[in-house]
Structures are given as structure tokens and as C-alpha cells.
Amino acid sequence: MRVGVQGTLLTLAPTGAESAKVDVPALPVTVDEVVATARDCRALGAAVLHLHVRGTDTRPTLDLPRVREVVAAVREITDLVVQLSTGGAVTDPAEARLAVLDAEPDAASLSLGTVNFGRDVFYNPWDLIVELHTQMQQRGIVPEYEVFDLGQLATLSRLLDRHGPPAGGHVHVDLVMGVPGGMPGTTAALAACLPFLPPGATFAATGVGRTSLPVMLAALSAGGHLRVGMEDTLSYAPGEPVRDNAQLVARAAGLARIAQRPPLTPTEARQLLGITRVPTTAEVSR
Ligand code: KMH
Ligand code: ZN
């Protein structure tokens, strides 16, 4: 764990690109819904917002004016770290995924390898990984390295060896577990990843679907951080649909407190992740 930061970094992934609003009415997709979710979850302990944007038709979009609109609206009402997804949807082309960086987020996700994604394929070839990494370095955008399988941690080491440390200098990894095609969401799989983290790196873990709770408990027990939200989990318990994102953040924050590592504030999260962009007055006063 990074010296001086003792709490749990709680990242909220409220929307994702996989679920349809018509199937999941509680999914935040409008600007107002995303802002209200961000505000409520910030109050409950979220410090980072992992953001996939939806268009006015509720479908996933990387349309830059729309992405900018949502980022500005979130910054207007909260001081959350805004981490844009560069993963997008499995159908998004590389150029559009790179162009998301033009919206000037504090941070962005960077997936470290191609992985089967259910019946789809999530493409992350080496050249795209390098391009995202170097563009984020040049723009001062702090990456969160998304790891879907253990071998992708070897890719991370190769990336850092060949292209240098990320913007901000600190390496933070999110182990995305339980994707059908990636590593399973188990304590054993999480423990197997830990020796392969770069020296000094921090990690969070995300358990997709029914692996959410076991992955959260395993991550906390190993000194890791947490990502939760309706991007990854739509059932709160067997047979019980998630009511909203706040329900998932409240549970994660409660477990973090039980682990005696309470949720970090966005300011503490910025310190942990090496984010130097200064929030606007509007963001700070919320
Ligand atoms: N929507 C997935 C295909 C990311 O945000 O960087 C990829 C994803 C990862 O969600
Ligand atoms: Zn995502």
C-alpha cells in the first residue's frame, strides 16, 4: 500500500456499455441520472467515477461532444476523480477509443490485453496499448490498468519497461475478475495475481456478476481497493436485482469500514493515484 494512504479507494462504475436501459431501468444513462448517481455515491464513499457515456438514445457512445457534456456536468456537481473508459463497447474502433482522451479526464482506463467477452471479443492489441499509454503520458492523464487475466500483468511489466512510468508516476491496476473469458472471480485467482504486480503498485479488484462479493472480500483482505457498480453487477443477492448504484457503494463502503480501511476522499484518491489536475471551485465546494 502507498505510504500515507491507509484507506480504501472506492471506484464507482455506474453504467458500462453492456446493459440496455430497457432491460435495466435503474441504469443511469441520461446526464441528469449520471450526475445524481455521482452525487449520491460520492456522499456514500465513492472517490472515482469510471465513466461510460450513453447518447440521448440511451446507447453507448464515444461521441466527443456528448462525452465532454457528461464530464462537465459531473465536475459541476462533484469533486470525484473522473476516469473515462477507453474500453468503450466491444464494437468501438481503436481511433474512437483513443479520441476519448480529448475530453481531458483526470484518469482513464487502459486494458492490457485482448480477452473473450462472453460471445464477443474485447480487442486490445499491443500497439493500441502502447498508443493509449504514451498519449496519456503526454497529456497528464493517469491510467488505471485493467487486467482481465494474469498474463496481462506480464504485458504491464513489458509496457513499463519499454515505455516508462505512467502520468503521475504511480501504477494502479484494476483486476477485473469473473468476465466470461477472463480469470475467475475467486480468492485463489486474486492471490495468484499479486506477485506479478509491479513494485510499488496498488490494486483494486472488480468481481463481475455473482463474483462481486467474494472478490470484494478477497481484495480487502489483501490490502486492495474496490470497484463496484452496475457496469459489473446487476444482482445484489441471488434473486434480488440491484436497486441502484448507491446500494452497491454503500455495501462496499461498509465492508471497507469493517476492514478498518474506510473510503478515501477524492482528494486522498488524487494523492494515491498521482493526479495533479486541480479540481475547479465548483467541484471542491460540493
Ligand atoms: N465495456 C468493455 C468492453 C473499460 O472500461 O476500459 C470494456 C470495459 C473496460 O468496460
Ligand atoms: Zn468500463
UniProtKB/TrEMBL annotation:
Its cofactor is Zn(2+). The keyword Iron does not apply. GO terms for molecular function: 3-keto-5-aminohexanoate cleavage activity; metal ion binding. It comes from the Bacteria. InterPro entries: Aldolase_TIM, BKACE. Keywords: Metal-binding, Transferase, Zinc. Pfam families: BKACE (PF05853). PANTHER family: 3-KETO-5-AMINOHEXANOATE CLEAVAGE ENZYME (PTHR37418:SF2), 3-KETO-5-AMINOHEXANOATE CLEAVAGE ENZYME-RELATED (PTHR37418). This is 3-keto-5-aminohexanoate cleavage protein. It comes from Modestobacter caceresii.
